[in-house]
Every structure is written in structure tokens, then in C-alpha cells.
Amino acid sequence: MDFSGKVAVVTGGGNGIGRAACLGFAAHGARVLVVDRDEAAAAAVAAEIGGAALACAADVTRAADVAGYVARALDAFGRIDCFHNNAGIEGKVAPVVEYEDADFDAIMAVNVKGVFLGLKHVLPVMIRQGAGAVVNTGSTAGLVGTARMPIYVASKHAVLGLTKSVAAEVGPQGIRVNAVCPGPIDTRMIRDLARQISPNRPESVEEAYVAGIPLRRYGLAEEVANVVMFLCSGLAGNITGAQYVIDGGRTAAPAGVSQTIGR
Known about the structure:
By secondary structure, the chain is of the alpha/beta class. The protein has one domain (7-183, 220-246): Rossmann fold. It has helices spanning 16-27, 39-49, 63-77, 101-129, 150-170, 188-197, 203-211, 221-232, and strands at 7-11, 31-36, 53-57, 82-85, 132-137, 175-182, 243-246. The protein has a seven-stranded parallel sheet, with helices on both faces. Strand 2 (31-36), helix 2 (39-49) and strand 3 form a beta-alpha-beta unit. Helix 1 (16-27) packs parallel to helix 2. It is globular, with a radius of gyration of 17 Å.
């Protein structure tokens, strides 16, 4: 897990899992580009890290912004060794018939197009280098269905499809592409979902989720970041096209029909 001399780019790096990955890469010796559409959040994480990090404001749904964060990484650091393609949004909790076209477009733009654009613009850099590792952030929602989260679930299934297909494409060039599939992680996203599901008693959502998790707790952002770093390290040199589930055992031993939203 030594990333000395390596460069990591993390999207959605201003909070949650992305922030934990930025801090983790830096703690293990990497220089880090913290990418987030929230410029202040990205800057705060970069400041927390210190001189080994730079912040970059970017909207991952815009090709020009994605090309811009790749150019920023190359201008500042000269290469990209690790790419955590992490930015994502949850959308609203509602039956599919209540979703508007704009809701669908917004979720797919960030969770699918954002991942696609990241791959499209980062992979040429890694191909020229002849090496690199990508970790896309999927979700347990990419493995199972979840009522009232249809578009988020569809988007995360798409991320896993992209991961497998692209891994097959770029493996011969020495590049590995994997995905992490978090279950409920103690971040802003799960708290927002809880407020949507139970506005008057959001803590009841955690109680229900935890009851169905063999480890009986939410995961931590740092625990996901540890797996991201493992998959980017030489320890995972023969792993590509894989999806690593980080959910405390919930999908392995589900308690009833309902499944957990990821992230």
C-alpha cells in the first residue's frame, strides 16, 4: 500500500467516501487531485492534506470539465496512476411512476455519464503510460433491486457493466479497472436517504438497516477507501473486472426481501 511517487485523482473528493480516499492515498505517499463540483469542499480536503494535494472544481457530467481535471493533474503532477471514479448522487426516494424525466436525466448524468467521461479522458493517459488502476464506485444497489430507488439502482447496474467491459478492453495495455460496491455507509448520502424515507424519525431507518446487517452497523467511509487503495495497489496486481462488496454482509445474508441502498 505504498503510493510514494504515485498520483491519484479522486472525483467526488470533497466529502464522504471520496474524501476518505483522498486522505488515504495521501497518507500512503501519493500526490492527490481532489475533484468535486463543490469547490469549497474540494479546497478544504486539499488543505487538510497539505502540499501533496490540489483541489479542482469540476462537474463530472461536462466533458470539458472532465478534460480539465485530467489536464490539471497532468500539468501539476505529470501522470495519473490511480483514478477513483467516485462522484455520484442518490436522487429522490419515490415510485418509478412519480419520477420526472429531469430526475432520470440528473441521476444518469452524474452516476453513468460521469463515470463514462472519466474513463474516456483518464484511460488515454494510462494507456500512454502503459500502467494504471481505476476504481469505479458502484453500490450494492448495482447487485440487487431496491423499491422506490429505480433510477439510482439502474445507474449503479450500469457502472458495473462499464467496469467489466472496460476492464476487458484495457487489460492488454496493463491497466486494471475494478469497482467497489458499498452498502450503507455513514455519510451524507445515507442520512439524506433516511430523511426522505422517514422525515419524522430518520433514525428508524438506520435501526431497520442495521437489523439486517450481520455486522450490525453502518460501514465507514475509511473502510471503503481502504478497499479502493488495495485495488489500486500492487497487492491487487492480478485483479481486474471485479466488484468488491463492502456492506457488512447484508447482501450475502439478506434479512427479507428488501435490500440496502448503497453509498
